[in-house]
Amino acid sequence: MDAIFKKAGLAVTFSPTGKKLLSEASRLQALFGFKLYFLHVGVRDSTTEQRLHHLIEENTFSGETELVWLSGEPSKVIIKKSKEIGLDLLIIGALEKERGIKTFIGSVARNIMRHCHCPILVLTKPEGERFGFKNIIVSVCYDKKGEEAAKVALQIARHDHPEKLTLIKEINIPGLPSVVFDSGSTNETDSMRKELMGIEKQKIQFFGQGVGMEKDEFNSEVLYGVEGWECLNYAQSENADLLVVTMSEKRLNFIDRIFTHDLEFLFERIPTNTLLYK
Amino acid sequence: MTHTEVVTFLVAISIMLFFARFLGEMFSKMRQPAIIGEIIAGILLGPTIFGNLLPEFQGMLFPQTGNVSLVLNGIVQLAVIMLLIVSGLEVNLVLIAKQGKTAVYTSVLGVILPFVLGFIPFYFFSEYFGAQHGDTLIFALFMGTALSISALPVIARTLMDMNLLKSEIGVIIIASAIVNDLFGWIFFSVIIGMITSGGSTNFLTQIGGIFLFLALLYFIGKPLSDRLVPRLQEKFSYPGSILSYIFIAGLVAAAMTEAAGIHAIFGAFMAGVVIGDSSHLKEETREIIHQFVTNIFAPLFFISIGLKVDFFAHFDPFLTMIVLVLGIVGKVAGCGIGARLGGMSMSESIAIGFGMNSRGAMEIILGLLALQAGLINEAVFVALVVLALATSLISAPIMSYFLRKVKKYENLAEIFDPELVIFTGEHGREAVLRELVAKLEQRVAANGESGFSTDKFYKTMAAPVLIPGLALPHAKLPVKRPWLAISISDGGYYYEEESEEPVNITVLLVSPEDKPELHLHLLAEIASVFAEENAVERIKALKDAQLIREFFTEKL
Known about the structure:
The structure holds 2 protein chains of 2 kinds. Chain A is of the alpha/beta class. Chain A has helices at residues 16-32, 46-57, 74-85, 108-115, 144-160, 176-183, 187-210, 229-237, 254-258, 263-268, and strands at 7-11, 35-41, 65-70, 89-93, 120-123, 135-139, 164-171, 219-224, 242-246, 274-277. Chain A is elongated. By secondary structure, chain B is mainly alpha-helical. Chain B has 2 domains: 3-208 and 298-405, Na+/H+ antiporter like fold (Up-down Bundle), CATH 1.20.1530; 412-554, 3-Layer(aba) Sandwich (Mannitol-specific EII, Chain A), CATH 3.40.930.10. The interface between A and B is large, with 45 and 52 residues.
């Protein structure tokens, strides 16, 4: 398979998870063979420099690396630099659940997830040792980007040999409950939902095979409900340790935040390690 | 209430419910909106028919004054609140934001045009049309609002019957109808508020009140509700607790808005919107609420319409005609033009226009509240009810007529071409495929398309064998629409050297490369045809392209 990621960035911090993030980045570098840029936001002085080098040197990196110093508002400068370098993957750490005024003021991780141009791997639970993902869930998107995302997941899966690789798709039929208003019965709506879920399950099967997965290499699951929300809950209830989602071209704006939907659910409550593919 | 009054009340309620449900069911059986049957039941039992034939008996059973009438009115009032809560639950704000410009144009023009068409004549000739309140502005504003409203349930039902609920056009219609509902109820609340607060001078206070209520709801009500809904569904009795919560919240919000001088229905509707927006609310809960309201409260409400008003005595043909013409022309033209501007084809735009035209329950609720508020007279009310019924009746057939003209090539039934069915005598895989691809190339070229060629097909082909006896080679190519070609071989051939079973049916699918989801959808549809027992054997036995077409499309 061609190298999907050629240049990757890692936001390096001195936080407790910083070490584990470095170790995870080194593992991913071995898998994808990318050049790794360490992005550090802070004042450059000899002590910090020494600490940083010390932190990085605790790990061995199989490929090329480069340390980049940044200063300014973290999310802004990281986003800007990522674009300048032309990164095609950015690895960041984030707390599982971020508290505070959630809707309007985004934290660093969320800002980066919303606005960065390239795919982002948010690690909420970096293990710190050379582990592999054990339960990968891919929220399927049928377009080109979605296919690429599934291929990345497949490449990781073939390397890590997870216990489970599941392709999921959320569907819902707007207006369907209103039909009950007219007939007073739920028989028709039930059968329509079942039928559509059956078709969707088939679609996932063909999609998986289309991106090169073998029939017995993945499971498929159709979730009925609110888009973005169901996938989140599924990832949580199944204890997934990697969730792969695709972000469409459309920019998220203010309206998307007021009427929370799709990815905004994810940004508010990142359930597990998440690869946001865009 | 006296002993006799209690008996009368109970008998009256059971008769109302029986007749409304009975006629409603009959209409449902005839594939017509149940609401029409329920209204007709009211006309039969009310002063129009029963009251004319046996006035004393009718008056005894459904008295217009006294305790029984008071209690019945209370139930009707409650029913209206319930209907509005349910209507609010279906408002899906995200859907509108996602649908983009087509839905926005359709809904905005679909509100503005009928509103203007309704406003102008009723403003300048208000006395002729029997404005009740004396304030022509309020009357004309109401008529504009009444003509611009749409009813989601009738529209959703029609779309479901036509299997379009999940299609692009279906989602646009649903999203536009939701916007319509939202605008309609906000306008109406302002208008009703104007009357209760004594004229249009308090307009700004009204608007201020509405915005304050919305802000309170969004910043306090919504976060609270979002926390409560999942807990109620999971930790308390289901569906009992969540049902109670929804109705309690709706009633409290209704009481709040009524107390603030905005109509109760606005609070009920907005409570529904807020609760319905919660991601935690199960689809099942929504349906249970619909069932509960539809089977008990809605019939009682709709039958009560006919019990209140003598439809014959107050039927004004000229007025009714004007309301019908303005309502239908405004809505169809407004939504149609909007859809066209939003990029839909002519036939699709007309279909959307007529789809949005059905008024149903919402129109009748608006009319009744205006009648109760003394804003309109019985004649205008009857005209509005006729508009509601007529549009609910005609929208489905007209919409399906225009949609049949639109071939979107979005499903197997639309792409199946009997000309592309070959009964082959070839045996090898290469020979069968070559014959099929050549035939398809010829057909695609005859259709004026150049995106398909044998070379391109072989380069991109993927070939899963789904079940024994079937091969399904498929590809995404730069074609404008999907194509399906089928080859049937009696003797069969081996697709791979190591195959254990011969292939009898080869289905070749080519779809546009820019529509990956459509490609998957068609593959899934083909798979579901072959999921039938012995599908391969049965298709083989058909020996006729038309019959095979039927087999393929009837399974869907």
